[in-house]
Specification:
mainly alpha; Helix Hairpins
């Protein structure tokens, strides 16, 4: 479950400050956290198709943000991939 404290922790770690919610890094980190949570839910509830659809939407949103970051600043993109442990 994503609590207010967990969100602030993610924003502080990836955005630089707890109030920096708009940076691409913090948005990707938050989406990645939600993707991991939903994936755990779907391992036990395989036929939950509405959650599966929301997972696909989140993956697409994260992909768009990562593509934007790779086009604008490749150094920040590579650092974020290493920090999150995403494979590319």
């Amino acid at each position: 479950m994503l609590t207010k404290e967990k969100k602030q922790e993610i924003f502080a770690e990836f955005g630089g400050a707890a109030t920096n919610t708009g940076s691409v890094e913090s948005q990707v980190a938050l989406i990645s956290h939600r993707i991991n949570h939903i994936t755990g839910h779907l391992k036990t509830n395989r036929k939950d198709f509405s959650t599966t659809r929301s997972l696909y939407k989140l993956v697409g949103q994260r992909k768009k943000l990562l593509k934007y970051l790779s086009n604008t600043d490749i150094v920040r993109y590579r650092a974020l991939l290493d920090k999150l442990g995403l494979r590319k």
